[in-house]
Amino acid sequence: MLVTERKPVDEIVGFLDGEKRVFLLGCDGCAAASGTGGEPELAALEAELAAAGVEVVGRKVVDFLCQKALIRAAVRPLAERLRSVDSVVVSTCGIGIQAAATVLDVAVHPACNTLSLGGIRGEWQGEERCLECGQCFLDATAGICPLTACAKQLVNGPCGGAKDGSCEVEPEVRRCAWDVIYERLERQGRVDLLRREGVFQKDYAKMRPPTELRGTRRWAIDLREEKGGEE
Amino acid sequence: MKLSERFADGKFVVTSEVAPPKGIDVAEMLEHVEALGARVDAINFTDQQSSVMRLGSLIAARLCIERDVTPVFQVTCRDRNRIALQSDLLSAAAIGVENVLCLTGDHVTLGDFPDAKAVFDLDSVSLLEAASALNRGVDLAGNELQGSTDFCLGAVVTPEAEHVDLQVIKMEKKIRAGATFFQTQAVYDPEAFAGFMDRVRPLGVPVMAGIILLKSPGMARFMNRNVAGVRVPDALISEMADAEDRVAASIGIAARLIRDVREVCDGVHIMPIGWEGHVPAVLDAAGL
């Protein structure tokens, strides 16, 4: 089971940085079970965003946002509406957010932090990887996670180690994550995003899953709820 | 002496790199320190260069200070977390280090312990932030220090990277985080470098062009294939291949590059990679 938690609405509104029209994407898999990505949660998020002056022009819950083919099929009928928005807010795990960012190729903002992947990488394993860092910053990196895509896990831009666009560590299989981030932002006309971001310092304490989650069936499905867990 | 004071004096600043030994015999390193000390403004001590385990740059910097030569203490993020990095910076200040070059560092896979755990808790930018905090008398978490540091902080940039724009964006971040001078990856194309300098001149921070001594045409081709951000033009490779005296050719090429970049930047940083003994001849030939 992947466990996610909703980010505070203020943080999400901060990501929008003036964008006024957004579309919401949810996930009916683990995120719905986590209480972050299902239809009721999207409705609640829409209300919170509306209260903050953001217009939500539509919302859609996809069965599994980790599966890019399902995202493609789900958004096909929504193409026109998606073209009319400034960005898409995605309420699911780090894998689903990255998959959505890849498929949609528009500005995508994370609405959740991923606390635990429970040992799996999405129901449908694509190329995306999430480090369960509990501090999702995919907003600042064009929906590509440098904690997993960069061999040095660099969060403030590339090192000098890329050769012809390939990573110095595994040049045969790994492109420089920051080159890929830059190229995606350039294609989307959003390179200035990189200039806007301050110096980012990871809080590795957030990688320890919250104690209240441990000992619950959301943490491990074979646990009995002896400690007064929530399910 | 802080490099920032040299720049402020309008001097064309010269630094050279010396790698600490793999072992504890520092005699050769100290010979280089004494031979170069009289000719350069400071000597950079690399931090486990290419991820190869060696004597530390901190103690090398101290041995340098004891010989009245100014060191630049190079610090990478590969081997230490934010606690150890800040602690080493405090130690550096306590033993008289004034100049610090903050780098991300090569990955462990490039060195002789590819099975080591790569740390990268901080990166070059957040390391600069940490060092700037220590200069203000607090640590990265905001805790007050008993006595603050007063470092001149430097950083690196790769002018010939795939996406120069991305390098410049990171350079701007490093400046905001406290970098007051830059040393570059090796430069072999003065015209391309002049173009890079046009772009970064408005940032208002001194830039020292990196000069790696070419030892052979094979080394040049190796760097072109394997070293990020290094492009040795074919003409220079031919010049090395055709030379009867490769040392003389190498010195000639380096001196010519220095004269060519001198008009557009604020200093040079020489990386002799084993040819430390030839650096004085390069400086003589370059008129420095």
Q: Give the tally of β-strands of chain B.
A: 8
**Rg value of chain B:** 18 Å
> What form of chain A results from the Cα inertia axes?
globular
The main sheet of chain B comes to: 8 strands, parallel, barrel
Ranges of chain A where pLDDT stays below 50 over 5 or more residues in a row are none
Number of DSSP strand runs of chain A = 6
Polypeptide structure, described:
The complex is a heterodimer of chains A (231) and B (288). Chain A has 231 residues and is an alpha/beta fold. Chain A has a domain at 3-144 and 201-207: Rossmann fold (3-Layer(aba) Sandwich), CATH 3.40.50. Chain A is 30% helix and 14% strand. In chain A, the strands form 2 sheets. A 4-stranded parallel sheet of chain A has the order 3-2-4-5, with helices on both faces. In chain A, helix 4 crosses helix 6 (94-104). The longest helix of chain A is centred in the N-terminal third of the chain and has 13 residues, at 39-51. Chain A is globular. Chain A starts with a strand and ends in a 35-residue tail after the last helix. Chain B has 288 residues and is an alpha/beta fold. Chain B has one domain: Alpha-Beta Barrel (TIM Barrel), CATH 3.20.20.220. In chain B, strands 1-2-3-4-5-6-7-8 form an 8-stranded parallel beta barrel, surrounded by 5 helices. The longest helix of chain B is centred in the last third of the chain and has 17 residues, at 246-262. The model of chain B has no long low-confidence stretch (mean pLDDT 97). The interface between A and B is medium-sized, with 31 and 36 residues.
